[in-house]
Design a protein that fits this description.
The complex is a heterodimer of chains A (about 450) and B (about 325). Chain A has about 450 residues and is α/β, with parallel strands linked by helices. Chain A contains 15 helices and 14 strands. In chain A, about 45% of the residues are buried. Chain B is about 40% helix and about 25% strand. Classes of the chains: A alpha/beta (about 450), B alpha+beta (about 325).
Amino acid sequence: MTIDETPGGRPPSSAHEIERYGGLFAKRTRGMTSSAMRDMMAVTARPEVISLATGLPDTTTFPAEDFAWLMARVAVDSSAAALQYGPTDGLDDVRRCIVEVMAAEGTEVEIDDIMVTTGGQQVIDLVCRAFLDPGDVVVAEAPTYPGAVPCFNSFQADVVQIAMDEHGMRMDVLEETLARLKREGRRPKFIYTIPNFQNPGGVTMSLERRRALVKIAAEQELVILEDNPYGLLRYEGEPLPTLYSLDGGRYVIYLGTFSKILSAGLRLGWTAAPKPILERMNLGKQAADLCSSPLNQYFVAAYFQHRDWRTYLTQLRTIYRRRRDVMLAALEEYFPAEATFTRPQGGLFLWATLPDYLDTTDLLARALREHVAFVPGRAAYLDGRGGSEMRLNFSGVNEDEIREGVRRIGKVIAEQVALYGTLTGQKPAPKRGADVVEFRRREAS
Amino acid sequence: MKVAVLKGGSSLERTVSLRSGARVEDALARLGHEVLPIDVGADLVERLQTERPDVAFVALHGRGGEDGTVQELLELVGVPYTASRPGACIRCMDKVVAKHALRDAGIPTPDFYAFSQAAFEELGAAKALPAIEERLDFPIVVKPAGQGSALGIKFASRAADVPNALVSAFSYDAKVLLERYVPGRDLAVSVIEGPDGPQALPVVEAIPTEEDFYDFESRYEIGRTRFVCPADLSPELAERAQELALATWRVLGCSGFARVDLMTDGEDLTVLEANAIPGLTDTSLLPLAAEAAGIGFDEFVTRVLDLAVQRTSV
């Protein structure tokens, strides 16, 4: 939000405000300043821009009449309670829904192990609150969820990012890093991971790696924060067990959300965690917001009681699978051969890597002139890496827009690759499609 | 008066512009004007034609709003507007045009070479790069010609960095410049026009709080840069900086208000660029300098509006 939206809302001032407040802001807010990149992201929200930058689920797919009927139901059945404060842990009815959702992924959990939160994002915040002193080490994937970056920054964490490959976080790199940290006398407070269809990487942690990670955590007594917003949005391949289920709830804090299977606007997520941790997080939540919206929780309870949540989920899977396929096909067609990209088995994102001489933050400026947007890779790192990478979302816009958006980005990349070739005398690689055409021709003859 | 505040738009400096605009709107409301906020888009001309404001306060930054485009439209529609006219806007926004004008007028500005994308694509300009690198010495600053903020500005510390930096700069504009790196302190001199002509305000110095030597982005961020006004300079040096700012203003033909950015290395002063519509937010340099000169924000807005109205009545 900009100040612009509340005209006249501030008292008149004549003194220079930055000087007035500058000395009062907490040191930890230093990492939260606006940056040119964030300013640029403001333009991506313009209506003329095809934004492959958001992480938005497609809420137009939820039937408006269902919404109206369920809300009316809440008003009739639970008016006073829905308008009242609720328990910090969340409503029992909602926690029972959560048990059901987690069971659908093969994870057994008791309702007492669960706390309802204000979006999954709050779980990250509460875990940081509970565990982090300034300078503490957090281990995360490289790249990591861009939305976690400001949270880690605001708690002044020292985030160490572990490289991934097509099987997720690399355990050899993790073990080396943990050994190094141990030598330095530093114990990481937690390991943050998104095992399924990682945001932004689009890769899934293999079963073998999951077992290895849980084992490392148990042996070294390290806590894992398992962020699993997309697990149920799998479009191909076999579901894999959650870290929480593999570990038996000893070292894993689980993060789930209704945002991707029902509605992001409800701002409802949850955590399942070992009791002592849950208690600390509960205290943190009391300080943060007392409880998550009971009105919205009643809506969830009514939805699970009167509608089949799995039907809607199946529908979402079908839509998103198609959109993913359209994006992959468009990338094959329009991205130059110098670019590579991941092929996610689910979720909402994929990750593209361009030649290292291209800077995707600058490329975004050029792409915005073609009215298309993506997330520059730097947003997913805390150490300045990711300059030639980008995140592309395929859930938020329709198939035609995905195709057109990818076409425009591909055009801009090709233009820059050619320009670099002109500047250095290097020839661009042959077009990605060349082999395919060759192959088809042979087939035809 | 009915005052339209033009802000936002689709330039990369949209966010800053919205904040500048909001602050101007607050001031206008306090001054008792009727405020018409316009987030500029495809309906701009139509809105100006139907709403018929008495005057427009242009609080736009960057492409479209600061480069003469909107000013040209305002002239066409016949709505008086604040700050510089199209010609001066074009000269300020295009760093290549500005630097040529400064150099021709004998105003010191770092050595530079400018190229269009076409020069590389059609005229083999790449072959000239080694000669440029020799003449400018490393590090070389590579800048898009027409980008107001720090976006796209890169340091090339060796020859191998130059092509990447050029590709980045060409993301923002079809014209770029390679400029000699000038070490030293960052200064900004804002100029406001008054009844007796342009007045240079006290010098502001931007001092990075961290060692972000190569990080342009941090320069104007709260918490990462400290602003000192008046800057800690000898009276002679401060006066020369103000004189250079006024000379720059005249050469580029500015009106209303503007900000000139300079560098000082010891006693040497060079002009980097001029901004036809500098930021007017709570954290911007022009309002800070005006404050130091005893000119409150409301008074600044009043002055600028009066000038805009007078300009058309002549």
